[in-house]
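Form P-L/3: holo structure prediction, ligand adenosine-5'-diphosphate.
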Amino acid sequence: MNVLVLNCGSSSLKFQVIDTDLDLIEKNADRRLASGVLERIGSESLITLRAEGKPAVRRATPLRDHRAALDHVLGWLVSSEPGSPGLRALGDIHAIGHRIVHGGERLTHSIGITDEVIEQIEDCIDLAPLHNPANLKGVYAARTLFGPGIPQVAVFDTSFHSTMPETSFLYALPYQYYVRHRLRRYGFHGTSHRYVAYRYRQLTGTAFESTHLITLHLGNGCSACAIQNGSSFDTSMGLTPLEGLVMGTRTGDLDASVLEFLHHKEGLGFGELDSVLNKQSGLLGLSGLTNDMRDLLDEARSHDDRRAKLAIDIFCIRVKKYIGSYLARMNGADALVFTGGIGENSAEIRARVCADLDFLGIALDPAKNDAAASGFEGEIGAADGRVKVFVIPTNEELLIARDTVRCVKDAPRRW
Ligand code: ADP
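OUTPUT (holo model):
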């Protein structure tokens, strides 16, 4: 079954076409047929399209909106151009899986998209005003271009964390704000944490209920998750993806009084403050250079840049603090799993995060850590470490495709 996976942002569309089915999931033999990114939708768009085993096609074309962008992708998928995957017709796409950022408290599992589900996703727009409307554009575009007959499935970033207890998800605010507005912590990156926890179980032969992990998704956005008995127990992102770890451009944890302070000192309004916290802070704000960890590490190494080093130090220390707090919260964990662009690729950041944690039973095998290059999946911890350490590349699109198949075929979708 060919599943088109769509991830629509406000001016971007990312897609993959994945051949998967219940038996292929069982054998871990799903296949990616094509993938691509369309950026700057609404003006002259930059497009990268790649069919498996063929060179990438790059082009720039004006694309008015998400519908035009999806139309462009579909035209390419069924074209006979040399770089295309050469699907025969649109009928070769059997279902569509959408990444939807916020499912709120009601949408706690991946689900077939009906008018009622669309209404529920719209109800969550207050909670994710930038993301959910953009995600829905993909749903509407697919309905228009494929017609109402094609199954569409919504997979939520928040749903994995719906198992968090009140003790994890409530803020210590007056309780009535939760009752009135569902103001609480939701957590994000759920598809990624869920996928690496599943791979960990596959690699180690661990049963679902016996899975006790700390997963660290370190990319442009960063989050940590405490997984107890297979389910999310606590996570670092909150009402929005701003809370928790230091990220490329986001502050992570912050004393909320900073807002009023900056309002008075700098005359910033709410919109500007939101932009400072979400787009100008984190690694970028601290270093004054870049939000890109690879570039920061280069700066720190080659120019001994003080603020680049400071940004990296603060980033790593925040991750350590979360590891410590989750080990305390869960009375230990069996393993620590690194994923995301930084977690998968940077031996240096992994080494710094794990340094001086031997008291907590965490230690790396330096040779294994250094050898764990891009694409590596496996263990990097010291042989005598009480808490094992793994690198597991995330694959959110694959999980979206698999959930889509399971929803369409009404199969259980526990992980
Ligand atoms: P997103 O959250 O946008 O999906 P990614 O998961 O791709 O982002 O992570 C992007 C981050 O990963 C960037 O900060 C990038 O510099 C970092 N990264 C990628 N490769 C490396 C590397 N070899 N060393 C250090 N950082 C890396």
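COMMENT: The longest strand covers residues 31-39.
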